[in-house]
Write a structure and sequence with these properties.
- By secondary structure, this protein is α+β, with helices and mostly antiparallel strands.
- 33% of the residues lie in helices and 38% in strands.
- The strands form 2 sheets. A 3-stranded antiparallel beta sheet has the order 1-2-3. A 3-stranded mixed beta sheet has the order 4-5-6, with helices on one face.
- Helix 2 crosses helix 3.
- The protein is elongated.
């Protein structure tokens, strides 16, 4: 498989500096800074990018699992929230909460919850983040 790349550049001290994140697959650049990460800023931050990665990965994994069970995954909409907390002199990601809404005709609520748990535990991004408490807090059928 192809290696996926992103590039980040940071200029200045932590609290007053600023950075740019670039994705290699598309012509996309976005800013990030201290305020956006530790306070309430208008730019992105690493935790938001982790939320984007895991929500996309989880949705794709769940789609595959639903199809393998013989159902039609018409739409999967997932929101992830990544929590950054202070720990000692630094910070850590304490948890990621996933909330998903699935449109798949004829599938039962019990089965979709079971399949969603499987997707949460087995998508590649979840596997990469094994040191983080990843919780599936809401699974809804549309």
């Amino acid at each position: 498989m192809k290696e996926r790349r992103a590039h980040a550049r940071w200029k200045g001290e932590l609290e007053t500096g600023k950075g740019i994140i670039e994705l290699s697959s598309i012509n996309f650049k976005t800013n990030y800074n201290f305020q956006s990460r530790f306070e309430e800023g208008t730019y992105t931050n690493p935790e938001e990018l982790i939320s984007a990665a895991i929500s996309a990965c989880f949705s794709m994994a769940l789609s595959k699992i639903i199809s393998a069970e013989g159902y039609d995954p018409e739409e999967i909409s997932t929101t992830a929230g990544t929590t950054l907390v202070k720990e000692g002199d630094g910070h850590k990601i304490s948890k990621i909460e996933l909330r998903t809404r699935v449109t798949a005709p004829s599938i039962s609520e019990d089965l979709i919850k079971k399949l969603a748990d499987t997707a949460k535990d087995n998508c590649p991004v979840s596997k990469a983040l094994t040191g983080v408490d990843i919780q599936l807090t809401s699974v809804e059928l549309a």
